[in-house]
UniProtKB/TrEMBL annotation:
Residues 31-170 form the Thioredoxin domain. This is TlpA family protein disulfide reductase. CDD domains: TlpA_like_family (cd02966). It comes from the Bacteria. Pfam families: AhpC-TSA. PROSITE patterns: THIOREDOXIN_2 (PS51352). It comes from Algoriphagus aestuariicola. SUPFAM superfamilies: Thioredoxin-like. Residues 1-20 form the signal peptide. Keywords: Signal.
Length: 174
């Protein structure tokens, strides 16, 4: 019951922020808007190399999540719609920073299906230390190595966050 109350409270705060264009308490997560995003170079769970330095000309969308996260599961069909709408768009890259072990991520994706993100396994400690994130899901939109937008909470139509993410991606494309 306490968990459900916290989810409802979080969704209320998020939707209030989007409607009133005010800063919610969740905005404190991650680097400040218009600051350089921490550089990274990782291997995806499928073995592909991803380096932020090589993505400077692209819009990079990052979703920080973990297997078992209720809000992360809730947003999956909507994130899949967004990635599908950009599947032929070479200007946009979708990365998932998953705070779960690679074998657990692979098993989860085999059971539930891919959503179009290149997933990278990171420890919770690394996500906290490098990206200053404690809550999931958290989303970042990066252009030219600079954080342009961020959002903590599930990307769902009820909070208008789905519209927000689509608009942010399109705003930062060349």
């Amino acid at each position: 019951m306490k968990y459900q109350f916290l989810i409802v409270l979080a969704l209320f705060l998020i939707s209030s922020k989007l409607e009133a264009q005010e800063i919610s308490p969740f905005e404190a997560q991650g680097p400040p808007i218009d600051s350089l995003f921490p550089e990274f170079s990782y291997l995806t769970i499928s073995g592909d190399s991803v380096d932020l330095k090589l993505l400077k000309e692209k819009v990079v969308v990052i979703n920080i999540w973990f297997v078992g996260c209720k809000g992360c599961k809730q947003e999956e069909p909507y994130l899949k719609k967004i990635t599908e709408s950009h599947q032929d768009d070479s200007e946009v890259v979708f990365l998932g920073f998953c705070m779960s072990k690679p074998d657990k991520i692979i098993k989860y994706l085999e059971k539930n299906g891919e959503i179009g993100y290149q997933d990278i396994s990171l420890s919770r400690d690394e996500v906290l230390e490098r990206f200053d994130v404690v809550m999931s899901p958290t989303h970042f939109v990066i252009k030219a190595g600079v954080l342009k937008a961020k959002y903590t909470g599930p990307i769902i139509p009820e909070t208008k966050s789905l519209e927000w993410l689509s608009a942010e991606i399109n705003k930062w494309k060349n």
